Amino acid sequence: MSKARASFGRSAGVHIALIAYTLVALFPVFLTIVNSFKSRNAIFREPLAIPTPETFSLIGYETVLKQGDFVGYFQNSTIVTVVSIALVLLFGAMAAFALSEYRFRGNAMMGLYLALGIMIPIRLGTVAILQGMVATGLVNTLTALILVYTAQGLPLAVFILSEFMRTVSDDLKNAGRIDGLSEYAIFFRLVLPLVRPAMATVAVFTMIPIWNDLWFPLILAPAETTKTVTLGSQIFIGQFVTNWNAVLSALSLAIFPVLVLYVIFSRQLIRGITAGAVK
Amino acid sequence: MGSLQLKSIHKAFGGHEVLKGIDLEVKDGEFVIFVGPSGCGKSTLLRTIAGLEDATSGSVQIDGEEVGHVAPAKRGIAMVFQSYALYPHLTVKDNMGLGLKQAGAPKKEIDEKVSKAAGMLSLEPYLARRPAELSGGQRQRVAIGRAIVREPKLFLFDEPLSNLDAALRVNTRLEIARLHRSLKATMIYVTHDQVEAMTLADKIVVLNAGRVEQVGSPMELYNRPANVFVGGFIGSPQMNFIEGERLGDAQAKTIGIRPEHIGLSRESGEWKGKVIHVEHLGADTIVYLDTENVGTITVRLFGEHRYAEDNIVYATPVIGSMHRFGTDDRVINSDR
Question: What is the CATH number of domain A69-277?
Answer without folding.
Answer: 1.10.3720.10
